[in-house]
Amino acid sequence: MQRESMEVDVVIVGAGPAGLSTACRLLQMAKAEGKEISVCVLEKGSEVGAHILSGAVFEPSALNELFPDWKEKGAPLNTAVTGDNVYYLPSAKSAIKFPDLLVPKPMHNEGNYIISLGNLCAWLGEQAMELGAEIFPGFAAAEILYHDDGSVKGVATGDMGVAADGEHKPSFEPGFEFHAKYTILAEGCRGHLGKEIIAKYALDKDSDPQHYGIGLKEVWEIPAENHQQGLVVHTAGYPMIGASYAGTSGGFLYHAEDNKVSLGLIVDLGYKNPHISPFDEFQKFKHHPVIEKTLQGGKRISYGARALIKGGLNSLPKMTFPGGLLIGCDAGTLNAAKIKGSHTAMKSGMLAAESLYAALTQAGEGETPARELVDYGERFKQSDLHEELHKTRNFSSGIHKFGFWIGSALTFIEQNILFGKSPVTIHDKTHDYAQLVPAASAPKIDYPKPDGKISFDKLSSVFLSNTNHAEDQPCHLQLKDASIPIGVNLPKFDEPAQRYCPAGVYEVIDEADGSKRFQINSQNCVHCKTCDIKDPSQNIHWVVPEGAGGPNYPGM
Description:
By secondary structure, the protein is α+β, with helices and mostly antiparallel strands. The chain has three domains: 238 residues, FAD/NAD(P)-binding domain; 243 residues, D-Amino Acid Oxidase, Chain A, domain 2, CATH 3.30.9; 29 residues, no CATH class. It is 26% helix and 23% strand. The chain contains 14 helices and 24 strands. Strands 1, 2, 8, 9, 10, 13, 19 and 20 form an eight-stranded mixed sheet that branches. The protein has a seven-stranded mixed sheet with strand order 6-5-15-16-17-14-18. The protein has a three-stranded antiparallel sheet with strand order 3-7-4, with no helix packed on it.
């Protein structure tokens, strides 16, 4: 069936901070000079912000640059940070509070805000539309389109109304093609089109392997007497203590407005023990006295999970390819030392807009703009974004190589004494998925049952994420080889997908004849991408489900 198509100057995949900042800045520049540039933004969530999940303590530097009058325009930055508490948790009951003088500079949050990134993206979407962008929520970009010369032509959305067996339902609608002079991939961490582009053009051939964590988050409404609006709490240590865990894991608790707190746990996906369940680690974490005292008497409102990218500058791929750019967390611009990626994503999008504008307006009459925006690489190298990422380039790799204590000491020296000007660059050449040791040689972990007050099970948590997919559709969690989960991963690693998935998607089922079966409950998927990252056989390939499927996060 012939697909309809639309011609635009720029198509942006993903209405997150990077993609929306690209649209806003590009159209600001066009408006200032009276130019016409057509920009459309595709968003797989049911609305802008529906799939956005972040802590989030927000650094407003990029927003100040993009919209200096953001306060007047009503940007949802309502809670200024009033204090920073950083703890090391040696055990399930004890805590050591770090003096401010010993906290690395990137972790200080004066001048920042506690926000819902989903709400900020919704606001950015409104600004983009006012400037003339077309935004299409519920449109999942499923496929890259190529010209005959191998350059990118645009993207196509997935077909709607396809049954699980591949047959067309009465509601079938073919996907729509967006043909563009430039295609901007801003899908967030481990974007599946970004993954394809990186592989096709070998954009990472000169980079260290990328590194990831999984962030699990809940929003609670708590009693007024437990609430300290503006307080930011970060933790390291418990429950992720010991050689099984990777060093850059940690917890957070942010006191937002209206007696609400955002809390979560980031589990470094370089962990070694296949018995680890990040979800259950999070439930344990909430029972630590430093956290539990705040939650007592409160009510959990929402839950979600999302992988985050944290390799930093050393792992950053080349971000240009023929016909487009890779920006934000799709490339890996997050600053792991600050635990912040929103302002860096926004800045990468603004730099992208400058390159796009130059290419689209400087081509002579009848000329085709250059296929590859090579000047973007130079703009990036000359930017304050590159400077920021260069200063913190050793954070993740240093802690991975030397462990938490020595790695943290090196971070302190590098940031507080050398001011980010270390003469040495530390590399980490290991892939996160290759870190798992055989299950037989790793200690089993006995996770306590949830109490239903502070800790909860996976299914009730997924319910709070408002996750929904059309039940009768092809599974978007594709196995390259269906025999591997039971034939390889189960005997060697006790099939870790049962545990690293934060939504109960993967199960090993005992059959009546004594055999085992691998079951994929794709309806539960919250689009975190952890399976695509951590599967030790690299056998799971995450692709987009039917448009608008997935979580609908309220204010995450």
